[in-house]
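Allow me, if you will, to draw on your knowledge of protein folds for a short while. I am sending you one protein, given as its amino acid sequence and as whole-number tokens for its backbone shapes. Kindly check, if you would, that the fold set down in the tokens agrees with what the sequence suggests. The record follows directly beneath this note:
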Amino acid sequence: MVTTNSTKAWFLAARPKTLSAAAVPVLIAIAFAMRDCHLIEIEGNAAQPRIVLVPSILCILFAWVMQIDSNFVNDYFDFKKGNDDETRLGPKRACAEGWITERAMKIGIIVTTLLGSAIGLPLVFYGGTAMIWVGIACVAFCFLYTTTFSYHGMGDILVLLFFGIVPVCCTYYVIMPEGYKTISTEAILASISCGLVVDTLLVVNNFRDRDNDRKAGKRTLIVKLVDKWGERSALWLYLLLGYAPTAIMLGISVYDSAVLGTSTIALPLYAAYAIMHQTTYRQMKSIYHGRELNIVLGGTARNIFIFGLIVFLTTVMGFAANV
């Protein structure tokens, strides 16, 4: 039993399991900033610069608060649009279940938006005034994803941008020391890989809801793919979104190993991730319809977090072995 507007209700509304997906881009950015600081020392024969700790902490806090903010916005507006009715197949939502009142949720959205802005504002001291525009874009993403773009098949592009390219590149930029604030090619490739991997979560979510979304006039990318090329095309998209980033990151690890002259554990670790991704793909293909796809959703969230850990470990251990 969940008491209306209770601490437990807000905890459930925040969807804590989603915070790992928000943490992964920051984790990857930190790993590549550490990597590139070490490579600067090797290539320039200068003292190794160090990443800046304070913006690292601010970035992870900002990512978590904005993820919660996005969850609140999604909860509220989907409820207002009538999407969270008795036909919903996904996990329960706070407003639809009566755990949080509409008025309280609106206040919650305002509070988390302001808190996220307050946490992100000091990043201006480390990344310049451009960080203000990045913050505004992140806040706009929270609202526009649910209210507009997800209804027109643009959700996957936003995930690529705001769970990959923007958080990885911006975190990398602000935590690099003064004099080295450029974004390496490898960091950009890592940001794209991160966005693609995180998008596997959206693909499962939209594959599960494809019939309800179609009825509601929500033309997600999955609905468009299924209508044009059949349901198997959505399954292939899920598979590709896991394998392509794995190949990219494995390539970077092999390159780093060659440059640093060290051995790498990347191959077995990424092979393990690929097996896990293949397993959730087979589950998705086997279940195909209904609430049981939430099992695949949970497995995919786990895969994303493990992918982030593998990227961090293989990137950091590569140069650590050469210290």
Notes: The chain has a mean pLDDT of 87.
